[in-house]
Specification:
Blueprint: H1 3-10, H2 15-25, H3 28-37, H4 43-48, E1 67-70, E2 76-77, H5 80-90, E3 95-98, H6 107-206, H7 208-211, H8 218-227, E4 239-246, E5 249-256, H9 261-272, E6 279-282, E7 285-288, E8 305-310
Parallel strand pairs: 4-8
Antiparallel strand pairs: 1-2, 1-3, 4-5, 6-7, 6-8
Length: 311
Amino acid sequence: MSTDLQSLVEMGFPEDKSKLALSKSGNLANAIDWLGANADKDISELNTAEDAANDNPALEAGETARSMVCNECQKKFRGMSQAQFHAEKSGHTDFAESAEELAPLTEEEKTARLAELKEKLRTKRARQAEEEKIAQRRNNEINKKHTRETEDIKEDLQKKEQVKEAQKKRQEKIDDKAAKERIKAKLEADKAARKAKADEEKAMRANPDAYNPGAPSTAAAGGAAAAAPAAKTGVNHAEARLRLQTSGGNVMKTFPAETTLFEVAHALEAESGVAATSFTSNFPKKTYDATDFGLTLKEAGLVPSAALIVK
């Protein structure tokens, strides 16, 4: 491998393109320029581009030195291949032969020229690296902006969901309060009705003649009552003994027969922390939900005792 070709390969240029560059340009310096100008072309494309440079190879050692001059920029070249390379690179077309002999570059000049070209190449690569860094920073800023916008959208959605959830809970509390007020009103109405009925029955027992004018007087009835055998007194249960089966175990409670299921649920929640929404009896099979909580234990058939499953 020639010294110039080895230098090009060590600089990172492909060997096949370096050989073609040396054949077209004639020396190391012009070869580097040619490689830079054709960096985007592959070797197959360069090999098929037959042009005048292939018919005018670089001057061989020992040939009579004759030069070419570009009439457009007055630059001088040692051979046709160099002039052709200049034409390809600059677009100049007006060339002429010159009798002036151009001395070949000395080793020191070659070294200096090579160092200059290496520096240009290093500067070019450094500039490209800086441009890539700038592009990367710009892409990072775009990605960060997109991420911030995405996070803002997510946060806004979360806030809206939190507002909706808070509104839902407030509405549930309002509905629950209204339901409790309706149940309480019904219980008060039922209690008032029961009290009125009890007062009426009490008044009838105190003065039965006022409610049944055609009936015999109390005195006459008293004699008949004395003659008749005493009627058997029915059993009147005034209390209900309940076994309440909860998720935390069984609770035994005794309530007056006139206690409502609502009051039972309230007492159970106050004592055990269990919020009852329904009571279920297995014998007979029946479920008492919130709409039945206005019933008394006596009206619900739970006197004198019952076992209820609390839900």
